[in-house]
């Protein structure tokens, strides 16, 4: 029996809600738009028209894959972060709303600096650095990422958002000291891998089975990257500059102590939308 685009969307939304998916409205819309080749505006405009059996079948196949665990962002190949459209692949983590708290905190500071250089380390899709560049036009941003696959996505997202003139991707290992040729920064931002190695097998299947473990595994206690970045990458941070971290649940105090031991002061902790300590940042007070 033929079905209209609007009824197809409503049917998919109901399926997702029944499966306990909180973002059912958003995900249903994105899946139907992608499967039918329509923009959000076109889907609304054509809601009363009938979808072809082929388009309905394609939509329901995508929904079945999603209900089996595959994230919507990987199914459609894109996602939105801080108002920016981003290409997404299985080589990078899917940007989360909680990470927008990190971007928001860093952007507010960077806007006070005037012309400056900013490093997004462990950049993944480049979402944080691109949000900085889009909202702080005086900043020049470097996206530092180790994975070749993630760097490819960074390049695509720089072009997609028209930021080629102010954002540069480089290959960088956050666990090693930076090359002197990289220069100095007034701000370093990082959402590093922070899941303890032993906890990865217990993650939700949508994360464990689809998202890159390279971007999840933070070592035995989840803090390896915080230690390495705070110790080694402060060499690339100007005295008086700030280091911003996203942290996992229960890690804020440990990261605070790591930063303090490396010469950072005025350290602050910011909670996310769920009142969970999510961002830790501090100022490099002196060369130590």
Short summary of the structure?
The chain is of the alpha/beta class and 288 residues long. It has helices at residues 5-18, 24-36, 40-45, 53-67, 72-76, 97-110, 127-135, 148-160, 205-208, 224-232, 252-261, and strands at 3-4, 50-51, 78-81, 84-87, 116-121, 139-145, 167-171, 185-190, 237-246, 264-271, 277-284.
List the helices and strands and how they pair.
Blueprint: E1 3-4, H1 5-18, H2 24-36, H3 40-45, E2 50-51, H4 53-67, H5 72-76, E3 78-81, E4 84-87, H6 97-110, E5 116-121, H7 127-135, E6 139-145, H8 148-160, E7 167-171, E8 185-190, H9 205-208, H10 224-232, E9 237-246, H11 252-261, E10 264-271, E11 277-284
Parallel strand pairs: 5-6, 5-8, 6-7, 8-9
Antiparallel strand pairs: 1-2, 3-4, 9-11, 10-11
Helix pairs in contact: 1-2, 2-4, 6-7
Uncertain regions spanning at least 5 consecutive residues: none
Give the CATH superfamily of the largest domain. Vaccinia Virus protein VP39
CA-atom Rg in angstroms? 21 Å
Biggest β-sheet: count, sense, barrel? 7 strands, mixed
Which structural category fits the helices and strands?
Answer: alpha/beta
- Please estimate the helix content: 25-40%
The 3D shape can be described as elongated
- Termini distance? 72 Å
The number of helical elements comes to 11
């Amino acid at each position: 029996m033929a079905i209209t685009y609007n009824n197809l969307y409503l049917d998919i939304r109901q399926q997702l809600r029944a499966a306990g998916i909180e973002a059912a409205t958003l995900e249903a819309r994105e899946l139907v738009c992608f499967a039918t080749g329509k923009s959000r505006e076109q889907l609304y405009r054509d809601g009363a028209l009938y979808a072809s059996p082929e388009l309905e079948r394609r939509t329901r196949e995508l929904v079945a894959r999603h209900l089996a665990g595959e994230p919507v962002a990987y199914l459609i190949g894109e996602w939105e972060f801080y108002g920016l459209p981003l290409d997404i692949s299985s080589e990078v983590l899917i940007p989360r709303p909680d990470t927008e708290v990190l971007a928001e905190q860093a952007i507010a500071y960077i806007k006070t600096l005037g012309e400056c250089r900013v490093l997004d380390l462990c950049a993944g899709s480049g979402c944080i650095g691109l949000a900085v560049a889009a909202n702080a036009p005086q900043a020049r941003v470097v996206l530092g990422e180790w994975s070749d696959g993630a760097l490819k996505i960074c390049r695509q997202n720089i072009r997609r958002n028209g930021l080629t003139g102010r954002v540069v991707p480089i290959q960088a290992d956050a666990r090693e000291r930076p090359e002197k040729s990289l220069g100095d920064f007034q701000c370093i931002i990082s959402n590093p891998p922070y899941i303890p190695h032993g906890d990865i097998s217990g993650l939700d299947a949508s994360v464990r089975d689809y998202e890159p473990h390279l971007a999840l595994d933070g070592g035995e206690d989840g803090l390896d990257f915080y230690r390495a970045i705070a110790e080694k990458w402060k060499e690339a941070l100007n005295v008086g500059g700030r280091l911003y971290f996203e942290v996992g649940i229960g890690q804020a105090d440990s990261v605070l102590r790591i930063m303090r031991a490396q010469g950072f002061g005025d350290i602050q902790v910011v909670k996310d939308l769920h009142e969970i300590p999510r961002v830790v940042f501090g100022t490099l007070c002196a060369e130590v």
